[in-house]
Amino acid sequence: MNGGPDYPYYNGEPVAITPGGWALVVASCAMAFLVLTFWPFPYFPLNFVSAALFTAIPLVALMAVSGWRPPAMFRPFGAKDIAIAIGFGLLTIACSFVAGFILSRFIDMTPNNVVTSVASMGFVETLVFLSPTLIQLVGEEVVTILPLLGVMWLCATRLGMTRHSAIIVAVAVSTLWFAALHLPTYDWNILQCLVTIGTARIVLTMSYLLTRNLWVSSLAHIINDWSLFFTSFLLGHGPIGVDS
């Protein structure tokens, strides 16, 4: 890990969050997911509303319980951070591909219908469709890293675990949580979500743990997901299409 500031909140820095505050923050992450799931606006420009609410709800909850300070997971973002994010984005693609390829030898894989739908879209339609995901993918990092920090706080301050052990438990719990959020997307294919989505999540989480910067893991996440979208687009519009 780098020599910069420690991870925020779990140890009372930059501000201590009460047990009730942590409960509100974690609940807000679940609420944000429910809003995204049950209040989707599929068409532009209202599709930005769901993405914005998904991202804003847990951030507002965090600010409310931390004295309305700016969220400490976000740090200054420079050229070095961009390079790290690109590297982790590519690593996420590679690791999840390998995990998915191995798993496909043993079970039937469920396609991501959102990704496959891009194959039939035009270029402008694809850009309009993808624009809100820039916000949503930042939100996915928020609703994953906040529970991670909450579990670290629980392990370190209430269960008396060492910092190292608290990080391991927090990564495991937040990975399971992130995989569970994707179950509806993959038709409740539990193994696929645990193995492929879980693998991608661990790599993305490592990018945050290394840099303590949610902008880095967010950009890595965008690179990973947008590579899937544009691959689907190219397959649908290339000389050898997906139906050929």
From TrEMBL:
GO biological process: CAAX-box protein maturation; proteolysis
Location of the CAAX prenyl protease 2/Lysostaphin resistance protein A-like domain: 126-226
InterPro entries xrefs: Rce1/LyrA-like_dom
Claim: Ligase is one of the keywords in the record: no
Keyword field contains Hydrolase: yes
Swiss-Prot/TrEMBL keywords: Hydrolase, Membrane, Protease, Transmembrane, Transmembrane helix
GO MF annotation, one: endopeptidase activity
Chain ranges passing through the membrane: 20-41, 48-70, 82-103, 115-135, 141-159, 166-183, 189-210
UniProt name for this protein: CAAX amino terminal protease self- immunity
Native organism: Devosia equisanguinis
